[in-house]
Amino acid sequence: MFGGVIPNRPFRPQPATARDKLLEAAVRLVRAQGFSATSVDQLCLEAGVTKGAFFHHFPSKEQLGVAAAQYWSRSTGEFFASAPFHHEADPAVRVLGYIDLRIALISGPAESFSCVAGTMLQESFATSAAIRDACAASIGANARALEDDIAAALAARGLVEPRAVSLARHVQTVIQGAFVTAKALPPEAAAPAARESLGHLRRYVELLLSEEPSLAA
Amino acid sequence: MFGGVIPNRPFRPQPATARDKLLEAAVRLVRAQGFSATSVDQLCLEAGVTKGAFFHHFPSKEQLGVAAAQYWSRSTGEFFASAPFHHEADPAVRVLGYIDLRIALISGPAESFSCVAGTMLQESFATSAAIRDACAASIGANARALEDDIAAALAARGLVEPRAVSLARHVQTVIQGAFVTAKALPPEAAAPAARESLGHLRRYVELLLSEEPSLAA
DNA sequence: CCAAACATACCGACCGGTCGGTATGCGTCA
DNA sequence: TGACGCATACCGACCGGTCGGTATGTTTGG
Predict the structure, then answer these.
(1) CA B71 to CA B17: how far, in whole Å?
(2) Residue, of A172 and A160, whose pLDDT is higher
(3) Phi and psi at residue B152, in whole multiples of 5°?
């Protein structure tokens, strides 16, 4: 890969402070068992810090959840922002390049490639507005990062339908869905199935962007 | 709608026994706040039964989760099995009819149209094999119910790619993803966004099944 | 020397689960 | 017919343990 990162979780800094260690632990545990099933004690154990350190850095478990979503959003956002597909001249190629990169990042068991924001969103959207908003911002940022390229690609084909914002959201929807249904399969089948769904998404985008303008009318 | 059912949650029987009341309460609460964030006491309160009744019918909270997934799978399965789109002659129309029905069922806030199996799967796949398997069976049954129609529609167009099993799974993936990303939006925007993503799925299936055989080669 | 960065000990509320007991319905046999 | 025996359905107080959170040190870097 590029930038010397670890495929599934880019931009993984050596966690130095107790705060960083807790955020890293939160990413691992939330992916594996969700947020509410993860206790503060468990987070401290996984991070190798004590409870005092936890509540020194975070006023509550909920605030750690918010911070974890932001940490996740920032590190993944930086990773995708620095990906080489942005240098492609054709916006359609950039869009497909993003999807190909997402496919390439999927490997191993489900908990190693699933999305922290999506997982937390699902269980916290009704119980914690702060966590919901942080997760929504993370997924929304991913969609927005795609929107301009999609808009340019659609415009280049003379298409007014679908709207770029809608298609960008759809891309994130399929990615999130792939993470969910992957968890229904045995570990060794999870990644291939998720990649296959993203393959369908890729084909859809390809069909849209290779469509003859006459067919779109 | 058909059969005199309630749109979002078909085949809702008048819950008579404490067991049924608990399963109905589980559907509501799990949709809203997930499984592990829902306590046994809360389930009893919502169902209007006592804790004694709970553990009379279920040996553990985990087993209630399994039963809730099966209850969900059975009631939704019966609903989709009895839907009128099955009477269409063209298998492609049946497939699109299924997607259209799924779109029609999406309304109101996210917790009123989201999937119990998908929600529980996400948080329990690593902590409870029994719940994971029950949820996986529910989603798998939905995919399998589509597979024959998809296979027939693809065969009628002379397509060997994609495989029917893969496309059937993809349909479920997009549906699950739509439920997740809907939760990132304010309640009034959730349903329209979810419908829009299923609209993209519908367009993809349409593009596939209306594709000229020459293009597929 | 003092704040920031931790560690330790502890709290009350709530968790899933247990247990002794009651109400009710049904088959059975004198 | 009716009273007995027994299973099912349900009740609610209670248990040990874990939960998120707090109070109070102790260490450490500037």
Answers:
(1) 14
(2) A172
(3) -65, -40
Closest chain B residue by Cα to residue A138: B184
How far lies B95's CA from each of A16, A170, A213, B174, B200, in Å?
A: 53, 20, 26, 14, 14
Type and span of the H or E element at B41:
helix B40-47
CATH topology of domain B70-216: Tetracycline Repressor; domain 2 (1.10.357)
Residue of higher predicted confidence among B213 and A101: A101
Angle between helices B116-124 and B18-33 (to 10 degrees): 70
Task: Convert the pLDDT of each residue in B44-75 to its tens digit.
Answer: 998 999 998 999 999 999 999 999 999 999 99
Query: In chain B, what are the domain boundaries?
Result: 70-216
pLDDT of A65-79, one tens digit each? 999 999 999 999 999
User: Best interface-test mutation with B: which of A111, A138, A176, A185 has the largest number of B CBs within 10 A?
Assistant: A176
A60-216: what fold? Tetracycline Repressor; domain 2 (1.10.357)
pLDDT tens, position by position, B85-125: 999 999 999 999 999 999 999 999 999 999 999 999 988 88
Query: Is the shortest CB-to-strand distance from B148 to strand C under 7 Å?
Result: no
Encoded tokens for B114: 């989201």
Query: Is the CB atom of residue A18 positioned under 7 angstroms from any atom of strand C?
Result: yes
Determine if strand C comes within 7 Å of the CB of B40.
Answer: yes
B176:A177 CB<8 A: yes
CB contact under 8 A, B122 and A125: no
Q: Are A126 and B196 in contact (CB < 8 Å)?
A: no
What local confidence, expressed as pLDDT, does residue B161 receive? 85
